[in-house]
Amino acid sequence: KLPLVAIVGRPNVGKSTLFNRLVGRKLALVDDRPGVTRDRREGDATLLGLDFRVIDTAGYEDEDPVTLPGRMRTQTMAAVREADAALFLIDARAGLTPLDEEIARWLRSETTPVILAANKAEGKAGESGVLESWALGLGEPIPMSAEHGEGVVDLFEHLRPYI
Ligand code: GDP
Ligand code: MG
């Protein structure tokens, strides 16, 4: 059984971009039940000779206040609880939002190890967001750019002890 890494974070921080970069075309286990592919996509990745499975969660991506989100959040929570480590992405360009803080609070209450990644940190525009994200209380933020492929190896080095 492969080590499991869950990618979590609010909408638009770059979770699926990172997932696609890690997994590429080796997408596996896409469940075709309605809604399920949206909630959770899994695929296998190999980085620096280590194989692991990645889950792309979307549990915080639905604005509907009553119906779907409850179930989707439940799926995200289940993914994190099942995972050997969680990659928590924030958007370093946008800075922190209340939803980032809410997710961080929840992650701090869980036992799954969390690696905090400050995505979209290419260039200078992300510098203040990277510094700001120390305030989430999840340790050192790893600056990265899922889109440009920067910082992914550094991220992996922080992940490696847990997988
Ligand atoms: P998700 O909602 O968290 O899955 O986010 P997506 O992966 O769909 O990305 C949301 C938007 O952010 C897209 O327009 C991406 O192209 C963009 N994006 C993702 N990663 C980066 C990055 O490293 N830098 C920049 N500048 N944009 C990014
Ligand atoms: Mg996505």
Automatic annotation (TrEMBL):
Chain positions recorded as GTP 1 binding sites: 9-16, 56-60, 119-122
Tell me the protein family, please.
Answer: Belongs to the TRAFAC class TrmE-Era-EngA-EngB-Septin-like GTPase superfamily. EngA (Der) GTPase family.
Q: Which gene encodes it?
A: der
Using the record's annotation, list all stretches that form the EngA-type G domain. Answer: 3-163
Its organism's taxonomic lineage begins at:
Bacteria, Pseudomonadati, Pseudomonadota, Alphaproteobacteria, Sphingomonadales
The task this protein performs is described as: GTPase that plays an essential role in the late steps of ribosome biogenesis.
Q: What is this protein called?
A: GTPase Der
Subunit and partners: Associates with the 50S ribosomal subunit.
- Signal peptide coordinates: none
